[in-house]
Amino acid sequence: MHRSFRLALLVLFAGPSVAASADELRSTLQDQQAVAVTIYNESLALVKDQRKVTLGSGQNTLAFRDVSARIRPETALLRSLSAPGALALIEQNFDFDLLTPQKLLDKYVGKSVSVIRTNPATGLETTEAAQVLAASGGVVLKIGNRIETGLPGRIVYPDVPGNLRDRPTLVISLNNAGASEQEVELAYLTGGLGWKADYVAELNAADKELDLSGWVTLTNTSGATYRNARLQLVAGDINLVEEQVQARRAMDKGARAVAAAPAAMAEESLLEYHLYTLQRPTTIAENQTKQVALLSASQVPARKELLLQGTDYYYQSSVGELGQKIKVGAFIEFDNTEASRLGLPLPKGVMRVYKKDAAGNAQFVGEDRIDHTPKNEKVRLKLGEAFDVTADKKQTDFKRLPNPAKGNAAFESAYEIVLKNAKTEAVTVTVLEPIPGDWSMLKASHPHVKATSNTAVWKITVPAEGKATLSYRVVVKY
To answer: Which of 316, 318, 424, 443 is deepest in the core (most CB within 10 A)?
Structure first.
């Protein structure tokens, strides 16, 4: 639309009822008695909106305003709480074509409007009848015998089309066999409401304990506000029909609000999932991100591990050098048990780890994503790569052995891994080698553990500002 073209809306009666039919009964947020919101991981929520409404006897048309703009209408269910069975649903329509200047103009293509122009010198206004010919990419009007675009002035509309509403509205046709005043509940599934868990862990100086805090981050882009809602969250992988719950690719940016008085959430099992309930009502405003406390634990025993992990491709070919100054991964793990001061179902999310420096300031040292973790399971986080601990690795021998049987193959190979430590204290490095096929260790400079059928594990102590060498020879049969 041309920037100089100003639109003015002239309606025959004011207020939000301009798009409603005369016999329509309207319910707004002023009628709301309570609202409960259960949010799932997949940008999906169940809303239960309880309101007090006044209905006539027999057939009624009830306009349930201020529902989510991303409601799934096929899931909507209206029932009477005060008179169960009194309401019989006939038909329902979700009106989501909302009133805007552009939408109003679009609806008047091919129809008549008035154009009011003001003489800049005298201030006098003149009115002309016009027909809207087009409204896409600009306004095209037929005024008398001429076609005009980009005219200064304003368009005056005689009315608002009945299919335009200022708020998302579910219009329900029903039969009422009960009292006129009833408490009803509209339950429906909607997109645009999502949550995720975020965790903050702080390691102690010895890397042997951590303090853990969990937060739930809520995001509301559903187009509605849920005031003083009873909030519940479901953690788990719920099966959803793919075509009905595709996530929005572009998420609206909203204000960020952190709960002023965080309180832990109560947890319970729900089928094969876990349900978390906030112990106080909270308002989830439209286009808002909110955080509420999930859990807190202190002095959780933790274990740090430096891990050098190999691959299995070089056990059946001659490769020579396998790498210089190979990075060694840094991991932290802890047990989600009551004995470790936890023992809570942990929803999936990102866990960020901090540690205080010599001056006592907490510094970020890495993060990792955890999956849904039940109690009595281990949480393992990769924080990054060690700076001062590296490895040089090479294959020192390789030969193909006579085939043990038709169609089989056997190989013998030897390896040397030099671990270097630039720290001023000794470290222990876990060397994990995935060895394929039917294998046996011929000899090794350090004792190993056969952790799984295809994995050999060594624990190598590397002295301060020194190095340690692991060498081993293995036979692999396929």
So the answer is: 316
57 CA to centre of own chain = 45
Distance (Å, rounded) from C-alpha 302 to C-alpha 415? 32
Q: Which of 125, 118, 117, 122 is nearest to 148 (CA)?
A: 117
Q: Write phi, then psi, for 101 (nearest 5 degrees).
A: -55, -40
- Report the chain's mean pLDDT, rounded to a whole number: 85
Measured CA to CA, the distance from residue 213 to residue 202 in angstroms comes to 9
Do 415 and 446 touch, CB atoms closer than 8 A?
Answer: no
Beta-bridge partner residues of 170: 64, 94
**What is the pTM for the complete model shown?**
0.69
CA dist., res. 104 & res. 442, Å (int): 83
Nearest to 148 by CA among 158, 134, 166, 161: 134
Q: How many CB atoms are closer than 10 A to CB 199?
A: 22
Instruction: Give backbone dihedrals phi and psi of 162, rounded to 5 degrees, phi first.
Output: -65, -20
Element (H, E) at 360: none
Rounded Cα gap, residues 20 and 29, in angstroms: 17
Beta strands in 81-152 (DSSP E): 87-95, 112-118, 125-134, 140-143, 146-149
**Residues 389, 462 contacting (CB under 8 angstroms):** yes
Residue pair 78/87 in contact (Cβ under 8 Å)? The answer is yes
Q: State the average pLDDT over residues 366-394.
A: 95
- The stretch 180-202 carries a mean pLDDT of 93
User: Does the CA dihedral 91-96-99-105 come out positive or negative?
Assistant: negative
396-416: burial string, b at 16+ Cβ within 10 Å, e else: eebeeeeeeeeeeebbebbbb
Residue 150 has which token pair? 């980009």
Tell me if 1 sits within 8 A of 192, measured CB to CB.
Answer: no
Closest CA to 312 of 447, 446, 478, 449: 478
Please give the structure tokens belonging to residue 205.
């100086």
Which letter, b or e, does each residue of 279-301 get, where b requires 16 or more Cβ atoms within 10 Å of its Cβ? Answer: eeebebbbebbbebbbbebeebe
Instruction: Supply the DSSP symbol for 373.
Output: B
Residue 336 has pLDDT above 80, yes or no: yes
What integer is the mean pLDDT of 382-409? 92
